[in-house]
Write a structure and sequence with these properties.
By secondary structure, the chain is of the alpha/beta class. Helices cover 41% and strands 11% of the residues. The chain is built from 12 helices and 7 strands. The strands form 2 sheets. The chain has a 5-stranded parallel sheet, with helices on both faces. Helix 2 packs across helix 4. It binds magnesium ion (MG). Magnesium ion (MG) binds next to strand 4. Magnesium ion binds next to strand 4.
Length: 281
């Protein structure tokens, strides 16, 4: 991370206020969707809202008119896909009808991303496989000479999967500098604390460094820190950003409360959540 004095002279290409406004809008949209289904992964979507927002709205380069971005996003923590869906709707890739039919028999969007749906590059949610696909995608980009950047978000729980570490090893061994990965380090895996179930998991960033990755450690709800971690990278190694986050971020009664891993708020809870969001800057 560079120092604040250096940041001050960077061209004014990042609008923090705008990023916060987008995240508020996206959380509101997810809450609205929650009123049409009996359960959804709201806690894990809220913990990576700022990260996924920055990836889509700050980092991924626009494509040619009517075309795709040269860069790719893969939601390795597939259960957090609500935030991906609402951003894809915001970008006009998915429709309001698509989101209104979420998790219905006639809809095409399920609780995990399905390859073949607009904007979805891989089926994920069986945790531990996403980063391996990212390595393959990044290698393919290099082989084609297109060098698109592959962005991904992993959960902290899935970093315990052995297959994740095989991908970590290959990413650095192959010198895939076009990978930008985040760990949504909310210290929960389903209903338990990651730090309690696997206390030797931490410190996490030094393990990625030992495997040859460049790392950054940030507050994953601070869009400025997310932006800086990626734009300040050296580019000589694949990047892993370990982002401290809060499961259920943005709604006080959901934050760090395990039941919100997979639950929809009732009408009263929904009203309270919306009122809280309205008070946030
Ligand atoms: Mg987690």
């Amino acid at each position: 991370m560079k120092q604040a004095t250096e940041r001050a002279v960077r061209p004014n290409s990042f609008d923090l206020k705008l990023a916060r406004a987008r995240c508020k809008k996206y959380r509101r949209r997810i809450l609205d969707m929650s009123q049409h289904v009996s359960a959804l992964h709201i806690g894990g979507a809220f913990s990576c809202t700022e990260i996924v927002d920055c990836i889509y709205n700050e980092f991924m380069r626009p494509g040619k008119p009517g075309g795709k971005s040269p860069d790719t996003f893969l939601m390795s923590k597939g259960h957090g896909c609500m935030i991906q869906y609402v951003i894809l709707e915001d970008h006009g890739v998915l429709s309001k009808a698509d989101l209104d039919a979420y998790c219905t028999p006639h809809g095409r969007l399920g609780t995990h991303p399905d390859y073949g749906n607009p904007g979805i590059e891989a089926s994920t949610g069986a945790l531990g496989h996403g980063l391996s696909m990212v390595v393959g995608m990044a290698l393919a980009e290099r082989g084609r000479g297109t060098n698109g950047i592959i962005y991904t978000v992993l959960s902290d729980g899935e970093v315990q999967e052995g297959s994740t570490w095989e991908a970590i090893l290959m990413g650095s061994s192959l010198g895939l500098t076009n990978i930008v990965a985040f760990v949504d380090n909310n210290d929960f895996q389903s209903l338990g604390r990651t730090s309690e179930t696997h206390p030797t998991f931490y410190p996490l960033a030094e393990k990625f460094r030992a495997f040859g990755w460049e790392t950054a450690e940030i507050d994953g709800h601070d869009p400025q820190q997310i932006y800086d971690a990626v734009t300040d990278r050296s580019g000589s190694k694949p990047l892993m950003v370990v982002a401290r986050t809060t499961k259920g971020k943005g709604v006080s009664y959901m934050e760090n409360v395990p039941i919100w891993h997979y639950r929809s708020p009732n009408k009263e809870e929904y009203a309270k959540a919306i009122a809280e969001l309205e008070t946030q800057g």
